[in-house]
Amino acid sequence: MAITTASAFASSTTAGYTVRTSSTTSALANTGDTIVSAAIDTSVDPIENKKIVVGVEVKTAFANVEAHLGYQLSHNGSDFTQTVDISTDTTPDVAEVHVFTADLTNVYAPYIRFIFNPSSSVKGILGAASDNVNVGTSGQLQFFFAYR
Q1: Where does residue 135 fall: left (phi above 0), alpha (psi -120 to 50 degrees), or beta otherwise?
Q2: The whole model's pTM is what?
Q3: Pick from 16, 73, 98, 135: CA 20 to 30 A from residue 122's CA?
């Protein structure tokens, strides 16, 4: 199992909100791989102690499984905490935008990242409520988040 890291986030503004979107990830090498977003510097994107919109746009469908979406915290942008679930079923087999609310109230860290299909068997990633699932290798997605 491996980790695929999405590109750095591009920025736009919509209805007074900052919206950050990654590029589309490449297809996975292995069916049980994990995808993580680029680390988000909270001094640049002040998302601490807020409820924000977060999600994935599935560009090419994955397998019909219950893949988790979560977030992790870091003190240095390289070493991350155990995953906190945002959703326990992102419906990755449906190629569309999947939007969730992430409650980051009372959450403080220099870096935050989002994680799709977390795995406890990959060094540096501790799984969420359960280990990752076999999402297939053809799927591709973009991460996004929005805040004010």
Answers
A1: alpha
A2: 0.91
A3: 98
